[in-house]
């Protein structure tokens, strides 16, 4: 049997030496299949995963929850303010903030394009230069104030996207309504975090946990716009 195996090796019949589909016998007499892997298996090994392809995945699309929230917010804003340019700006604000909330919940980050879209939406229906300057000044004041607060708070407690979105929202809401919206969002976030810590931890212990703030900022902005 060993002589036969040596003969096969000399003639190129072993694994890797001969043509495809050759079979070599081992010492126990069993046949060892040396056929190459199928082409489909090799192609599947080098095929990129679905998320790396050029087509966007379903998770990156505008979620249905955002559409429902935008529709509900639009109806409430139209009932509260009527059909006017202010309602249009607030509806656009709700639509962009709902998308930013989905990004913050899913990826813990928000692209800067959302802040730019809110600043563009703040120009809807505003033709007087004084209104445009007032909106820009409100956004700049909120940005500087939150940047100063970020330097005093714990690192990581206030993200850059939170500051940018708050400043962009001030261009639509104004400085006073935006401050009320941020305060309402912080209050709701702290209340939810306290309930979660109390239910998950023991009595008397406290755990610092980071959470996405944009959904709470969105809720605060809508409350400030409605009331």
Structural class: mainly alpha
For the record, give the distance between the C-alpha atoms at the N and C termini, rounded to a whole number.
93 Å
Q: What composes the largest sheet?
A: 2 strands, antiparallel
Q: Average the pLDDT over all residues and give the rounded result.
A: 77
Number of domains: 2
The count of strands amounts to: 2
Q: What general form does the structure show?
A: globular
Strand content: under 5%
Low-confidence stretches: 1-8, 10-28, 40-45, 50-58
Order of helices and strands: HEEHHHHHHHH
> Looking across the biggest beta sheet, what order are the strands in?
1-2
As a whole number of angstroms, the C-alpha radius of gyration is 31 Å
Helical segment tally? 9
Question: Care to describe what's here?
Answer:
- 63% of the residues lie in helices and 3% in strands.
- With 227 residues, it is an all-alpha fold.
- The protein folds into 2 domains: 2-44, no CATH class; 62-226, no CATH class.
- The protein has a two-stranded antiparallel sheet.
- Helix 7 packs across helix 8 (175-200).
- It is globular, with a radius of gyration of 31 Å.
Short structural summary:
By secondary structure, the chain is mainly α. It is 63% helix and 3% strand.
Question: How would the blueprint of this fold be written?
Answer:
Elements: H1 2-10, E1 23-25, E2 31-33, H2 39-46, H3 64-81, H4 85-107, H5 113-121, H6 129-152, H7 160-173, H8 175-200, H9 214-226
Antiparallel strand pairs: 1-2
């Amino acid at each position: 049997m060993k002589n036969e195996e040596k003969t096969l090796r000399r003639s190129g019949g072993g694994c890797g030496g001969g043509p495809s589909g050759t079979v070599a016998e081992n010492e126990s007499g069993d046949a060892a299949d040396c056929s190459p892997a199928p082409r489909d298996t090799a192609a599947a090994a080098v095929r990129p995963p679905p998320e790396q392809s050029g087509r966007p995945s379903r998770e990156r699309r505008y979620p249905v929850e955002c559409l429902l929230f935008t529709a509900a917010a639009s109806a409430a804003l139209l009932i509260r303010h009527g059909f006017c340019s202010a309602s249009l700006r607030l509806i656009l604000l709700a639509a962009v903030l709902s998308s930013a909330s989905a990004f913050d919940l899913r990826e813990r980050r928000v692209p800067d394009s959302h802040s730019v879209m809110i600043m563009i939406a703040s120009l809807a229906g505003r033709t007087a230069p004084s209104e445009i300057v007032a909106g820009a000044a409100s956004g700049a004041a909120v940005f500087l104030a939150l940047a100063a607060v970020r330097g005093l708070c714990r690192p990581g407690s206030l993200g850059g996207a939170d500051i940018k979105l708050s400043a962009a929202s001030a261009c639509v809401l104004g400085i006073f309504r935006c401050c009320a919206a941020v305060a309402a969002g912080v209050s709701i976030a702290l209340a939810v975090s306290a309930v979660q810590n109390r239910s998950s931890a023991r009595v008397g212990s406290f755990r610092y946990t980071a959470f996405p703030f944009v959904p709470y900022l969105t809720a605060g902005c809508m409350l400030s716009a409605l009331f």
